[in-house]
Amino acid sequence: MAVLLAGGCGHARAAQVSDCSSAGPGTVVVTSALETGQAVPAPHRVNMAAGSTVQVRVSSDKVVQIHIHGYDLEYDAAPGTPGCVSFVAGRAGLFDVEAHPDTLLLQLEVR
Ligand SMILES: [Cu+2]
Questions:
Q1: What does the pLDDT look like over 42-89, one tens digit per residue?
Q2: CA 38–ligand 1 middle distance (angstroms)
Q3: What letter would DSSP give residue 59?
Q4: Could you give the CA distance from residue 105 to residue 84 in angstroms, rounded to a whole number?
Q5: Is the dihedral of CA 68, 73, 74, 75 positive or negative?
Q6: Which of 11, 47, 41, 39 is closest to 100 using CA atoms?
Q7: Distance between CA 1 and CA 82 in Å, rounded?
Q8: How many alpha carbons lie under 13 Å from residue 26 in its C-beta half-sphere?
Q9: Domain spanning 4-110 has what CATH number?
């Protein structure tokens, strides 16, 4: 799986990124799905402490690009191949996770 630098929404990259092969103790695992253009479950807010390791896993019924704003992480999800990224949430704030171009999946609230 490729994890690419974001081109679009303009923030400096602020995360250490790894793949999702291991979820250690304390890892915050966040999942969402995109089904016929809708986020399932409906967009919601997930709280975590700054410095947490987070995995954001998204399954989708079509090929789509997932974007984690603020951390500027972009990765692909496709049918049968969920997209997942694991990173350290070192920056506090409220960050949208989108299926591009404009479907909000959830928000990460880091504090
Ligand atoms: Cu975006």
A1: 999 999 999 999 999 999 999 999 999 999 999 999 999 999 999 999
A2: 16
A3: E
A4: 14
A5: negative
A6: 39
A7: 10
A8: 8
A9: 2.60.40.420
> Do residues 103 and 43 touch, judged by C-beta distance below 8 A?
no
DSSP-derived letter for residue 51 is: T
Sequence-distant (≥ 6) Cβ neighbours of residue 44 within 8 angstroms: 106, 107
AA identity, residue 73: L
Contact 81, 5 (CB under 8 A): no
CA 106 to chain CA mean position, Å:
9
The two tokens of residue 13 are 């990259």
Which amino acid is present at 81? T
74's tokens: 């972009």
Query: How confident is the model at residue 19, as a pLDDT?
Result: 74
> Residue 69 Cα, ligand 1 centroid: separation in angstroms?
6
Ligand 1 centre to CA of 106 (Å) is 12
